[in-house]
């Protein structure tokens, strides 16, 4: 069993630490956030992630997993040190690497001399970062220290981090030294996932290219949804029809108000930035981001059209987290939508099962409600922002009766337009039939055909 240090205990770091401890390794997690460390030392999970809390408690109690703010405790004896700190979007769109640099220097200072330590980059880092980390480590460490740096990008999804860690689609390892990659591969040997060993830059690129591709699928279907809205087709069935083609597959083809979260927006932007800096012309990446921005704007435009005016209107938001099963609000569409609504003079009432605390701090004038029914009470419109499961089984008749005007804007196409309209709502989704029905531009047909 290995001794493993994990630097940065957020969604990725904590999941990594818990996973390796659960496999029987001795793991020490480090974080600069003292409050978080104190919580984890007591077996409490600082993030909302289904299943993580139980595994954390179990491994802390089994004394395989401990937490500290002291790098030396985690690094000096470790065979492997995983860097899992955040790499947020910098002001110019590139990745902000200050936390990675701090982590690398912190590790370098306490690396044991005369033995090999493998430092593994799990954070998503720009292409070439492995070289930079190697240089920083070497700079700080004693001359006799032996260091290998391996890139091991993480592909877990928030909301299913535990499942994704236990059932990875692939393990990607990038290294200059194959033996180091193989040593890291040993840690994953109990998983049946395909293993891909590459050079470091290629591994770093696999992560960016994967996220950019998934984001592109979302923007693609959102563009198709917009065209469906205008020409009168149903994007849900279009996506189903496309997804049945094995070359396409069904995933990431749900039209809605676009992607958010801590990864897609920043990673697509970072790839765009890297490409531009390298004098490439990333046209598709520009379009992916433009369409995503537009998805939110067109949501507000639709709401304005449905209500006639937003000033003075009371709008209920169902869902705030960037997606279901997480409390993460980073780049969540809800934040931009709330900002826009408040700017236009609307009154906002909101409900989310787990993400209200973080939003409250940002928007003190928003009314936060105990449940979706309370949020809808007296509202001129309900807007569905995050497709939490609990929104599926609601008594929509009760919702309609409590509203001032029964208007529903479904940003995730969670509801069946016909059913919700039959309950007496004015309904609009994204690329699906709206009620009352929009007039279709049949007269335009002549413009689409050549003769
Ligand atoms: N969240 C995801 O779904 C996901 C998925 C795959 C990859 N990633 C990538 O993984 C990395 C981490 O993401 P995250 O969502 O876990 O971030 P996070 O913000 O949730 O956690 C980062 C943690 O690192 C700590 N930290 C910052 N600087 C530190 C330092 N110098 N020393 C020790 N601790 C430090 C922070 O206090 C925080 O607890 C990012 O590069 C991200 O792009 C994230």
CATH H-level superfamily of the largest domain = NAD(P)-binding Rossmann-like Domain
Structural class: alpha/beta
Give the rounded overall mean pLDDT.
96
Query: Strand-residue fraction?
Result: 5-15%
The quaternary structure here is: single chain
The first-to-last residue Cα distance is 73 Å
Shape: globular
Q: Could you give the order of strands across the largest sheet?
A: 3-2-1-4-5-6-7-8
Number of extended strands = 14
Please give the radius of gyration in angstroms.
24 Å
Task: Describe the 3D structure.
The protein is built from 18 helices and 14 strands. It folds into 2 domains: 3-198, NAD(P)-binding Rossmann-like Domain (Rossmann fold); 231-428, Rossmann fold (3-Layer(aba) Sandwich), CATH 3.40.50. The chain is globular, with a radius of gyration of 24 Å. It is 43% helix and 14% strand. The strands form 2 sheets. An 8-stranded mixed beta sheet has the order 3-2-1-4-5-6-7-8, sandwiched between helices. With 451 residues, it is of the alpha/beta class. Residues 7-13, 30-33, 36, 84-87, 99, 102-103, 106, 123-124, 154, 156, 158, 262-263 line the site of nicotinamide-adenine-dinucleotide.
Detail the topology: elements first, then pairings:
Blueprint: E1 3-7, H1 11-22, E2 26-30, H2 34-41, H3 52-61, E3 65-68, H4 71-75, E4 80-83, H5 98-110, E5 116-121, H6 129-140, E6 146-151, H7 161-166, E7 171-175, H8 178-187, E8 195-198, H9 200-231, H10 235-243, H11 264-277, H12 283-307, E9 314-318, H13 333-343, E10 347-351, H14 356-362, E11 367-368, H15 372-376, E12 381-384, H16 396-402, E13 407-410, H17 417-422, E14 426-428, H18 445-448
Parallel strand pairs: 1-2, 1-4, 2-3, 4-5, 5-6, 7-8, 9-10, 9-12, 10-11, 12-13, 13-14
Antiparallel strand pairs: 6-7
The protein binds nicotinamide-adenine-dinucleotide.
């Amino acid at each position: 069993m290995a001794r493993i240090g994990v630097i940065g205990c957020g969604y990725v770091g904590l999941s990594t630490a818990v996973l390796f401890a659960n496999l029987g390794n001795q793991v020490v997690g480090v974080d600069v956030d003292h409050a978080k460390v104190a919580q984890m030392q007591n077996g409490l999970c600082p993030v909302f992630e289904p299943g993580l809390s139980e595994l954390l408690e179990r491994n802390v109690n089994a004394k395989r997993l401990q937490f500290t703010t002291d790098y030396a405790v985690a690094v000096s004896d470790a065979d492997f040190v995983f860097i899992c700190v955040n790499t947020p979007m910098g002001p110019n769109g590139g990745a902000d690497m200050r936390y990675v640099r701090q982590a690398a220097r912190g590790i370098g200072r306490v690396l044991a001399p005369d033995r090999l330590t493998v430092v593994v980059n799990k954070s998503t880092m720009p292409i070439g970062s492995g070289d930079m980390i190697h240089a920083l480590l070497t700079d700080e460490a004693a001359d006799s220290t032996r260091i290998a740096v391996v890139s091991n990008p993480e592909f877990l999804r928030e909301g299913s981090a535990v499942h994704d860690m236990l059932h990875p689609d692939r393990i990607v390892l990038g290294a200059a030294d194959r033996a180091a990659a193989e040593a890291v591969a040993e840690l994953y040997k109990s998983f049946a996932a395909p293993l891909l060993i590459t050079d470091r830059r290629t591994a770093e690129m696999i992560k960016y290219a994967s996220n950019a591709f998934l984001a592109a699928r979302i923007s693609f279907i959102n563009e198709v949804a917009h065209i469906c809205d205008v020409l009168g087709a149903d994007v849900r069935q279009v996506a189903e029809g496309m997804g049945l083609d094995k070359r396409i597959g069904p995933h990431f083809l749900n039209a809605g108000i676009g992607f958010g979260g801590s990864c897609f927006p920043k990673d697509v932007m970072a790839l765009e930035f890297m490409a531009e800096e390298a004098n490439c012309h990333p046209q598709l990446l520009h379009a992916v981001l433009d369409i995503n921005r537009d998805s939110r704007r067109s949501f507000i435009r639709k709401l304005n059209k449905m209500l006639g005016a937003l000033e003075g209107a009371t709008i209920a938001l169902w869902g705030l987290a960037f997606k279901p099963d997480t409390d993460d609000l980073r780049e969540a569409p809800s934040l931009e939508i709330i900002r826009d609504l408040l700017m236009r003079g609307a009154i906002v009432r909101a409900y989310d099962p787990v993400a209200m605390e973080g939003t409250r701090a940002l928007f003190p004038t928003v009314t936060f409600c105990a449940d979706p029914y309370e949020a809808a009470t007296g509202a001129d419109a309900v807007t569905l922002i995050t497709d939490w499961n609990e929104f599926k089984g609601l008594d929509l008749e009760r919702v309609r009766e409590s509203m001032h005007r029964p208007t529903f804007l479904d940003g995730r196409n969670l509801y069946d337009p016909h059913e919700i309209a039959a309950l007496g709502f004015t309904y609009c989704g994204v690329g699906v039939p709206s009620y009352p029905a929009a007039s279709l531009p049949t007269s335009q047909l002549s413009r689409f055909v050549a003769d």
